Amino acid sequence: MRTSAVSPPSSPAFDWTMGVFSLLIMIGVFQDGWAHNHGLVDQSFLTPWHAILYGTMALTGLFLLGAGLRNLRRGYAFRNGLPFGYWTSALGVVVFLLGGVFDFWWHSMFGIEVDIEGLISPSHLTLAFGGMLVFAGTLRSIGAQYGSQERRWRSLGPAVLASIAVLMLLGFFTQYASPLGDGTMLGILGPAHGTAAGSLYAVRADGSGQTRIASLAGHDVLGAAVSPDAKLVAVRIQPANDGQLPPSDLYIYKTSGGGG
User: Fold this and answer.
1) Cβ-based burial of 90 (10 A; exposed 0-12, middle 13-18, buried ≥19)
2) Nearest CA-CA partner of 2 in 106, 72, 89
3) How far apart are CA 82 and CA 15, in angstroms?
4) To 5 degrees, how large is the angle CA 222–CA 228–CA 230?
5) Separation of alpha carbons 236 and 214, rounded Å
6) What does the pLDDT look like over 179-228, one tens digit per residue?
7) Cβ(17)–Cβ(82) under 8 Å?
8) How wide is the angle at C-alpha 40 spanned by C-alphas 34 and 46, nearest 5°?
9) What is d(CA 114, CA 235) in angstroms, rounded to the nearest whole number?
10) N or C: which end of the chain has fewer CB within 10 A?
11) What local confidence, expressed as pLDDT, does residue 181 receive?
12) What is the reported pLDDT for 195?
């Protein structure tokens, strides 16, 4: 018999658990981003880096599922099976896992993205939206309780953790425009096979400050990587592919132009 028409109350332990899960999810995001930046994904979706990220989200989902089933046995209606705010988190888990399926298909069709493409691909933005919903659950829960409990670290701490996770997520997906760096991005224009024109450029995130680093007519540029201070770029250059695998050399250029 269902006796409760309201949501079950949350608890500090529940809120803290979800706050910690929020940070663990973002640690999973950052370590996966690190793996992408260091070429450790091996052009495959099935990597240990993805396993850590998706495994942490799966644990979050199992925690919410267990809480919901326990409350159903206590007589709460299905729509009130989770404390206030946490249906948002449950929806986020579902969106994230569906986004994972989408991401697997996307990588299978188009390969592993690099540089800014990895931040703005539709599948990764879907994952980001799901994560944001998960973090929002804790914020909604603490917001609903605010004023009815002591304003101490024990009760408000989970909201701090969830807020940090939100800021980490926003910072991760907007890192190409971060004010902490000089906004230098690498652009490779050409060269198409058989053409006489092709250059390596550095531009700022807003499209300004375009600087030609090198003229690379008749060559392919592979695996460009910018140094952490955005002052140097390392690239592998080889003659334009004519159906074989010509030898290549590693060059280092200044993003301000010159060198190599």
Assistant:
1) buried
2) 72
3) 12
4) 75
5) 13
6) 655 444 444 444 443 333 356 777 766 666 667 777 666 676 666 777 87
7) no
8) 105
9) 14
10) N
11) 52
12) 37
> What's the rounded Cα separation, in Å, for the pair 13 and 25?
18
Q: Which residue has the tokens 């807003």?
A: 206
Q: Structure tokens of 131?
A: 């994560």
Residue 8 · residue 80 · CB < 8 Å: yes
Angle 39-37-167 (CA atoms, 0-180°, nearest 5)? 150
- Type of residue found at 232: L
pLDDT in tens, 18-75: 999 999 999 999 998 887 766 666 556 677 888 899 999 999 999 999 999 999 999 9
The per-residue pLDDT for range 81-106, each reduced to its tens digit, is: 999 999 999 999 999 999 999 988 88
- Tokens representing 200? 């390596």
- The predicted pLDDT at position 159 comes to 94
Residue matched to tokens 């709460």: 76
Task: Give the chain as a 3 state SS string.
Answer: CCCECCCCCCCHHHHHHHHHHHHHHHHHHHHHHHHHHCCCCCCCCCCHHHHHHHHHHHHHHHHHHHHHHHHHHCCECHHHCCCCCHHHHHHHHHHHHHHHHHHHHHHHHHCCCCCCHHHHCHHHHHHHHHHHHHHHHHHHHHHHHCCCCCCCHHHHHHHHHHHHHHHHHHHHHCHHHCCCCCCEEEEEECCCCCCCCCEEEEEECCCCCCEEEEECCCEEEEEEEECCCCCEEEEEEEECCCCCCCCCEEEEEECCCCCC
